[in-house]
Automatic annotation (TrEMBL), chain A:
Alphabetical list of CDD domains matching this protein: ABC_TM1139_LivF_branched
Domain ABC transporter: 2-233
Pfam families: ABC_tran (PF00005)
Keywords in alphabetical order: Amino-acid transport, ATP-binding, Nucleotide-binding, Transport
Keyword Transport: yes
Gene Ontology molecular function terms on file: ATP binding
Species assigned in the record: Lutispora saccharofermentans
Name of protein: ABC transporter ATP-binding protein
Keyword field contains Membrane: no
N-terminal signal peptide: none
Listed InterPro entries: AAA+_ATPase, ABC_branched_ATPase_LivF/BraG, ABC_transporter-like_ATP-bd, ABC_transporter-like_CS, BCAA_Transport_ATP-bd_LivF, P-loop_NTPase
UniProt family annotation: Belongs to the ABC transporter superfamily.
Domain of life: Bacteria
TrEMBL record, chain B:
Lineage: Bacteria, Bacillati, Bacillota, Clostridia, Lutisporales
Stored CDD domains: TM_PBP1_LivH_like
Transmembrane segments: 12-32, 38-55, 62-80, 95-121, 142-162, 190-216, 228-252, 264-280
Keyword check for Membrane: yes
InterPro entries: ABC_transp_permease, BCAA_transport_permease
Protein name as catalogued: Branched-chain amino acid ABC transporter permease
Secreted recorded as keyword: no
Membrane topology label: Multi-pass membrane protein
Pfam families: BPD_transp_2 (PF02653)
Annotated PANTHER family: BRANCHED-CHAIN AMINO ACID TRANSPORT SYSTEM PERMEASE PROTEIN LIVH (PTHR11795), HIGH-AFFINITY BRANCHED-CHAIN AMINO ACID TRANSPORT SYSTEM PERMEASE PROTEIN LIVH (PTHR11795:SF371)
Automatic annotation (TrEMBL), chain D:
Organism per entry: Lutispora saccharofermentans
Membrane-traversing stretches: 9-35, 55-76, 88-104, 124-143, 173-193, 213-235, 247-269
Domain of life: Bacteria
Name this polypeptide is given: Branched-chain amino acid ABC transporter permease
Classification of source organism: Bacteria, Bacillati, Bacillota, Clostridia, Lutisporales
Annotated keywords: Cell membrane, Membrane, Transmembrane, Transmembrane helix
Chief subcellular location: membrane
Matching CDD domains: TM_PBP1_LivM_like (cd06581)
Subcellular location: Cell membrane
InterPro entries: ABC_transp_permease (IPR001851), LivM-like (IPR043428)
Membrane disposition: Multi-pass membrane protein
From TrEMBL, chain E:
GO molecular function: ATP binding
Name of the protein described by the UniProt record: ABC transporter ATP-binding protein
Domain ABC transporter residue range list: 4-252
A Pfam family it matches: ABC_tran
Organism: Lutispora saccharofermentans
């Protein structure tokens, strides 16, 4: 459904993505793992239309994706960005409602709102709080909830478990599975490689801007090189 | 209440409403772009000139000229945005650069008028009778009343637009975070154009009204400094703040002239401004949010 | 082949065949109308002189620059004119604040300057000493203030006056001070003295206050733009008393901006516009530029007359000799007899012309001089 | 070109430079934007002129007196307003600058709006050049010291500065005071060059002009300020014969510089032997180190 | 011996009590942990200790001296420094400049000396630069010293923040989620770095983090916060086995 081919992205002199190619099929959870600075966020931003790329193609359902974030969203691709990016001066509720900016179906929006509050009861409690003063974890929940409100076909999640308490990390991954059940496709970027691989169908390993490995999540998780580099000497 | 006080109050309100029309354009742009658009004064000045020429040279009827002038400045403001700010935006330059670019634009606009049209004053033909309405011994200019009403209507429309339309919501969101708004499917580039167009529209209206009431000359921009101060007074980026700040500044100025000293009117107004900022660092209605560490 | 490398396309007269004269004044800002008129008048007069064979057999040329009304710019312009362009004399500027700071430049370059409407006494005399290279063809502020006060009190019989002036303007402050001094010394009272600041366009707060004080005349020691706005707003507020002003008021612009409101205004002027002697100049200017001659045009005309006279008497275009000749000037200009005093470099004993606005005319009332 | 005329332009550029250097410390290095520096120039100008004219002081002590006066006033203003953020601080300084002018317009002791002629002509090219050289050295030394770095830190990120133990308010105040002192000296030089002072000379336009020079030259660069002052002071002179069009060109060139080179002429770089060396190595590094950084850099 | 004591510390925002009546000691020379669900008030406690927020009620004692209500820079001068949950570097400056700035308090020359570049200033400047170089060396950032901080990979930015904090010669170092955004491997490296650092710089450390491997691995004492109140306190063992903590925070780990 989403197809990236030979993508090259530069930041000034820095060559951040060097010929990245990947595929995502409908209904899949695909995860990208890689160390800090590997280019994961860069890849998501390129798909979302934030970055001009020199070379390569990004196609969605056989159509070339425009380099314009709002058009990409319109086509049903929604990113939940790294670092939350909530509207710091708006209330929690306003934030969530903005997620539904492009939607017109009032009743369905209401329904989805209830669903979001169900997933994140903390947000319901803080409905009227100014989003900028939420704790780090609360902001992350808000960003996810807001993303869900746009009712996308593909969700691009950039490190959704970042800064979340262990209990919530579990919840977030459960939610991701729930979201998939809602007939959505998910591209998940994660540092928490264990968890990500445990719920994903397929995985890519991104290193220094290049895809180093790809395959089924299980295959990647079992790969000794990956285990050493990304899963680390995990205690327990 | 004494007649004198009442007269000064009316004077203050009418001066304040001129400031308000100008300040709203500032605040609007500030709220999205987070910088003070000093070119606004230049656009207002051109609005006054356009209105004048549409009326006298093209012989348009008043309302047609009025709207045409506002539409022209609309386009002009957008052109300035494209030329002087967009490249900076794409580079994510800090706000200082925007301000300097805006100053450059303002110097440019003022002087291009001097160089082409010339420095002489132009007077609008008399559209509303200059004989004022008498309320006891207090007088109320017809033009002032008209201005007050037009300002009020425009501002009400603007508030409606911002609060109740989808584009309005997009403007609000974009003012908080451009990237996040884009992720919500908002066409942020369009939002910025709309904001400048709106700012330009208001500049045009302000310019024509200003020109009708006073005269048209290349240095009209100077007076917009006052409206800038008023916008800060009320809290930058807040539309109600801009209006309240303007009206208050107008009244403070007139009352200072009336009861204290016209020599030190601006001084007192400034001292008051600084005092307000010391106690309310974000103006009267600007939002105070603690920086979260 | 070598000959081609130096094309002689310009057949300009050799340098010594031209007498270069500098001009400076405001070409931008509120007073640009006057500045432009001054420069145009000088150009017209020089063309006329050149057409008649020039001066001392040489052609006159004017080099004019804008001072933007800014003292610092004025100094730059003076340096440019004396240093770079090597003019023999400078005409203008019209603002006292620009005429004062150029004195050291003139002294260093030994080039004389004839100011047009710079009326501050300190333009030519400082601390009792006359500045060697500064001259002017207009009367000075104390005199103008005295004339205005005297005419208002003695002739028109007003006992209570109000003043509305510009605190940030040198001309306005000076004239206010002298008007007030003379008016009070005659026995009148200033019942209200209100101020505004350059750039203001709304004066109703001050006018409301003036209205409360019930004066018989409103003195406006300011320039025409503000005066027009003030007149309009005063009438709106129901202030019907006559207005009065100095040489900052007369301008064609006054009528376009506030024709009805300024009716009956008395003005202390340098010249009587209806004087038969000025009609010729007026029509020459109108024919050439299709505009009305502004007040500054008359004064710069006289500055040119004074300069030409000095050059002729000096018999040379040497700036020092011109300066010497200027000190003994006695010529008749359109604004009256100009006898430059060696002690003050001012034209002594020049009458003021009182004019009154009636319709779209400045109607001459009388010559008046203060004692 | 005539020497006398060029001298005049250089003198003026030198005087402007003095004020610009001060503003450069405040805006370029400390990140505070001022619209009131003409006000400090005015204070310095009037104070030093008072010393030479009314008390017969010699030139240099009078200049220092002007600097001191400006610094003291700035301390008071700073105490009140330095906690304000961004545009709010701007507007407070704008208000201050206008207020100073308004007060001077009304002080008849100094001639009010009519101006104050007859100030001795002490400023000449030699002393302006010497003073500027000293000013540049002082500024450069300051910037290269821990105090200068603390100001830069304040510009970059206030909260982080606090956390590494920098008294943000104090450094803002110091920066403002030094910058006001520089402006004060510039005012004094101006007074004794023009031999005439008028509040009009210190308008908002003057403040704006100074800020434009700083940004045009490049924020955070002393050499940029020097270059900017020279270029932008002489540009209007060079364009003088274009009369009305020169300010059009001036405005346009400001925009063009901003959009085509937003870091200003010099943008953070300095013309010093060591920096040129550093620049060279940086360029070299870019070529050699970057690939290795991208390819060989092992995470942590 | 406790280096830091919080006594009845309370912070309210409007009606919301972010931190309520917390008592807590940080032992000298040890690594302690502060954990709790999102929004429990951990970062707020850091902000209170470092003076970024004003304390609503209660007292903060550092080395038995009351530092409640003092300015952040003053507290930093006393020997407490921190890193931020959302990295706050001097982004546009180089790595070296970041550390050099933070070294400033090791110098004592005044402005006049710096302007005249007197010997004392020159000598101290040399020492400051030496110190900055040393720190970069120790933190393994020497080879990137001329890079702009913002262009560093995320993990290195965190490391730089720690280096910058160490430049102040702190006695107490507060780390707010130092391992956020790191993968398990990187987290492990960070752990060993912190453990090495502690004795080398004679530090006491207080860490907030959600990576249980890290917290349980290196902390000797842990405090758990929930809804702004203290939920539990003890050794990692105690905490892991505390049912209340498991229920509120840890969850039943898979
Ligand atoms: N705006 C930018 N300008 C310059 N370089 C950038 C920019 N954004 C990212 N980079 C560089 O591009 C590379 C890839 O960055 P990216 O943010 O995509 O990494 P990531 O895999 O998402 O890492 P993380 O896990 O830290 O989020 C890094 O070396 C980074 O320093
Ligand atoms: N400036 C503020 N204004 C209003 N509420 C605030 C402010 N700062 C924090 N809060 C609230 O205080 C509570 C505690 O926030 P804090 O940032 O300390 O949480 P935390 O424990 O660090 O969480 P996380 O692990 O998610 O970072 C939260 O509910 C937050 O919304
Ligand atoms: Mg990332
Ligand atoms: Mg936190």
């Amino acid at each position: 459904m989403l197809k990236v081919q030979d993508l090259n992205v530069f930041y000034g002199g820095i060559h951040a993505l060097k010929g990245v190619s990947l595929d995502i099929n409908k209904g899949e959870i695909v995860t990208i793992i890689g160390s800090n600075g590997a280019g994961k966020s860069t890849l998501l931003n390129a798909i979302s239309g934030f970055l001009k790329y020199k070379q390569g193609v990004i196609e969605y359902k056989g159509e070339k994706l425009p380099i314009s974030p709002n058009k990409v969203v319109k086509m049903g691709i929604c990113q939940v960005p790294e670092g939350r990016l909530v509207f710091a001066n708006l209330t929690v509720e306003d934030n969530i409602m903005l997620g539904a900016y492009l939607r017109k179906d009032k009743n369905k929006i209401k329904e989805d709102l209830e669903k979001v509050y169900e997933l994140f009861p903390r947000l319901k409690e803080r409905e009227k709080q100014i989003a900028g003063t939420l704790s780090g974890g609360e902001q992350q929940m808000l960003a996810m909830g807001r993303g869900l409100m746009s009712d996308p076909e593909i969700m691009l999640l950039d490190e959704p478990s970042l800064g979340l308490a262990p209990l919530l990390v579990q919840t977030v991954f459960d939610i991701i599975i729930d979201i998939r059940k809602m007939d959505k496709t998910i591209l998940l970027v994660e540092q928490n490689a264990y968890k990500a691989l445990s719920i994903a169908d397929r995985a890519y390993v991104l290193e220094q801007g290049r895809i180093k490995m790809e395959g089924s999540a299980k295959y990647i998780a079992d790969n000794p090189a990956v285990r050493e580099a990304y899963l680390g000497a995990k205690v327990q | 209440m004494s007649q004198f006080f009442l007269q000064q109050l009316i004077n203050g309100l009418s001066i304040g409403s001129v400031y308000a029309l100008m300040a709203v354009g500032y605040s609007l742009v500030y709220s999205i772009m987070n910088f003070s658009n000093f070119a606004h004064g230049g656009v207002i000045m051109l609005g006054a000139y356009f209105g004048y020429y549409y009326l006298t040279k093209l012989g348009l009827p008043f309302f047609a000229a009025f709207i045409a002038a506002a539409l022209t400045t609309c386009v002009l403001a957008v052109v300035i945005e494209r030329g002087a700010y967009k490249p900076l935006r794409e580079r994510r330059a800090p706000f200082l650069y925007f301000i300097i670019s805006a100053m450059g634009a303002s110097i440019f606009l003022e002087n291009i008028v001097i160089a082409t049209i010339g420095p002489t004053f132009k007077s609008y033909p008399e559209i509303l009778s200059r004989t004022p309405i008498q309320l006891g011994s207090v007088t109320l200019g017809r033009l002032d009343l008209a201005m007050f009403i037009i300002s009020a209507i425009c501002l009400a429309l603007l508030v409606f637009f911002i609060d109740f339309t989808k584009m309005g919501k997009a403007i609000q969101a974009t003012s908080y975070s451009v990237k996040a708004s884009a992720l919500m499917g908002i066409n942020t580039d369009l939002v910025i154009i709309v904001v400048f167009a709106l700012g330009g529209f208001f500049a045009g209206i302000a310019g024509v009204l200003f020109g009708m009431k006073y005269t048209v000359y290349p240095q009209i921009g100077i007076i917009t400094n006052k409206s800038f101060i008023a916008a800060v007074f009320g809290g930058l980026g807040s539309l109600p703040g801009a209006v309240v700040g303007s009206i208050l500044l107008g009244i403070i100025e007139t009352m200072t002239s009336g009861y204290l000293s016209s020599n030190y009117r601006d001084l007192i107004a400034f001292v008051l401004l600084i005092a307000i900022l010391v106690f309310r660092p974000r103006g009267l209605m600007g939002k105070v949010t603690e920086d979260k560490a | 082949f070598t000959g081609c490398s130096k094309p002689q396309t310009e057949t300009a007269a050799p340098a010594e065949e031209i007498i270069k004269v500098g001009w400076m004044g405001s070409l931008t800002g509120d007073q640009a109308v006057w500045g432009q008129c001054e420069l145009d008048t000088v150009k017209m007069l020089f063309e006329e002189i050149n057409a008649k064979g020039g001066l001392l057999g040489k052609k006159l040329e004017v080099i004019g620059y804008d001072t933007k009304g800014d003292p610092q710019e004025a100094v730059n312009v003076a340096k440019r004119l004396t240093g770079q362009d090597k003019v023999v004399a400078i005409l203008g500027p019209n603002a006292s604040g620009n005429a004062i700071p150029i004195a050291p430049v003139l002294e260093q370059a030994k080039v004389p300057d004839i100011a047009t409407v710079a009326t501050n006494p300190k333009v030519t005399v400082l601390d009792g000493k006359v500045k060697p290279y500064n001259f002017r063809v207009c009367f000075i502020d104390p005199y103008q203030g005295a004339v205005a006060a005297g005419y208002a009190y003695d002739v028109l019989g007003f006992k209570k006056a109000a003043i509305l002036y510009d605190v940030a303007d040198d001309y306005s402050q000076g004239l206010t001070q002298f008007f007030e001094e003379f008016f009070v010394s005659k026995g009148g009272t200033v019942v209200a003295k209100e101020a505004f600041k350059f750039g203001d366009v709304d004066f109703r707060p001050q006018l409301s206050k003036i209205k409360e004080a019930n004066p018989e005349v409103l003195f406006l020691p300011i320039f025409f733009k503000e005066a027009a706005l003030i007149a309009n707003q005063a009438r709106e507020l129901g202030i019907t008393i006559p207005l009065m002003g100095g040489d900052g008021l007369p301008s064609e612009q006054l009528f376009t901006m506030a024709k009805d409101a300024v009716q009956g205004t008395y003005i202390v002027n340098h010249v009587d516009y209806d004087d038969p002697e000025v009609q010729d100049l007026k029509s020459r200017y109108r024919t050439k530029y299709n505009k009305e001659l502004e007040l500054n045009g008359y004064l710069v005309h006289d500055a040119v007359v004074v300069l030409v006279d000095a050059i002729e008497r000096a018999g040379s275009a040497d700036s020092v000799k011109i300066t010497e000749a200027l000190e003994t000037t006695k010529v008749k200009g359109v604004t009256g007899q100009i006898n430059i005093s060696k002690e003050t470099h001012n034209p002594e004993g020049k009458d003021a012309a009182i004019v009154k606005i009636e319709g779209d005319k400045y109607v001459f009332q009388q010559k008046y001089s203060a004692k | 070109m005539d020497l006398y005329y060029i001298q005049g332009i250089l003198l003026l550029a030198g005087i402007n430079l003095m004020a610009v250097l001060g503003l450069s410390l405040l805006t370029g290095f400390t990140g505070l934007f001022s619209f009131g520096h003409a006000g400090f120039m005015a204070i310095g100008g009037y104070a030093s002129a008072m010393m030479t004219v009314k008390y017969g002081w010699p030139f240099i002590p009078a200049l220092l007196m002007g600097a001191l006066a400006a610094a003291l006033v700035s301390a008071i203003i700073g105490k009140l307003t330095l906690n304000l953020k961004g545009d709010y601080f701007c507007i407070a300084t704008l208000g201050f600058g206008e207020a100073i002018r308004l007060v001077l317009d009304n002080v008849q002791y100094f001639g009010g709006a009519r101006g104050w002629p007859g100030i001795p002509n002490y400023t000449n090219l030699t002393n302006v050049v010497i003073i500027n050289v000293v000013a540049v050295i002082i500024l450069a030394n300051l910037i290269r010291s821990r105090h200068g770095r603390n100001m830069i830190a304040v510009r970059e990120e206030e909260l982080a500065s606090q956390i590494v133990g920098i008294n943000v308010f104090k450094y803002k105040l110091i920066s403002l005071m030094i910058s006001a002192a520089y402006a004060g000296i510039a005012g004094g030089l101006m007074a004794h060059y023009m031999t005439f002072l008028q509040p009009k000379m210190f308008s908002l336009v003057k403040s704006t002009e100074l800020t434009i020079i700083v940004i045009f030259g490049g924020l955070g660069s002393i050499s940029g300020s020097v270059l900017g002052a020279l270029v932008l002071t002489s540009l209007p002179e060079i364009l003088r014969s274009f009369s009305n069009w020169r300010l059009v060109i001036y405005g346009l060139s400001v925009i063009i510089i901003m959009i085509s080179r937003p870091e200003g002429l010099m943008g953070g770089y300095e013309f010093t032997p060591s920096s040129m060396k550093r620049l060279l190595t940086r360029l070299k590094n870019k070529r050699e180190d970057l690939p290795s950084q991208m390819e060989g850099g092992k995470p942590l | 011996m406790n280096i830091l004591e919080l006594q009845n510390l309370t912070k309210t925002f409007g009606g919301l009590t972010a931190v309520g009546n917390v008592d807590f000691e940080v032992p000298k020379g040890k690594i302690s942990g502060l954990i709790g669900p999102n929004g429990a008030g951990k970062t707020t406690i850091f902000n209170l200790i470092t003076g970024v927020y004003k304390v609503s009620e209660g007292k903060i004692m550092f080395k038995d001296r009351d530092i409640t209500g003092k300015e952040p820079h003053f507290i930093a001068g006393q020997g407490i420094t921190r890193t931020f949950q959302n990295i706050r570097l001097f982004k546009k400056l180089t790595v070296y400049e970041n550390v050099l700035i933070a070294c400033h308090s090791n110098g004592s020359y005044n402005i006049l000396e710096s302007v005249l570049r007197l010997p004392r200033c020159r000598k101290q400047e040399r020492e400051l630069k030496q110190k900055a170089d040393n720190l970069l060396e120790i933190m393994g950032l020497q080879d990137r010293k001329d890079l702009i901080a913002n262009n560093l990979p995320y993990g290195l930015q965190r490391r730089l923040e720690i280096a910058r904090a160490l430049a102040l010669n702190p006695e107490l170092l507060l780390l707010d989620e130092p391992a956020a955004g790191m993968n398990p491997d990187e987290t492990a490296q960070l752990m060993s770095l912190i453990s090495e650092m502690r004795p080398k710089f004679d530090l006491s450390v207080l860490i907030i983090d959600h990576h249980m491997d890290l917290v349980m691995g290196i902390c000797e004492k842990i405090m758990v916060l929930n809804f702004g109140c203290k939920l539990a306190e003890g050794t990692p063992q105690d905490i892991q086995n505390n049912p209340k903590v498991v229920e509120a925070y840890l969850g039943v780990e898979g």
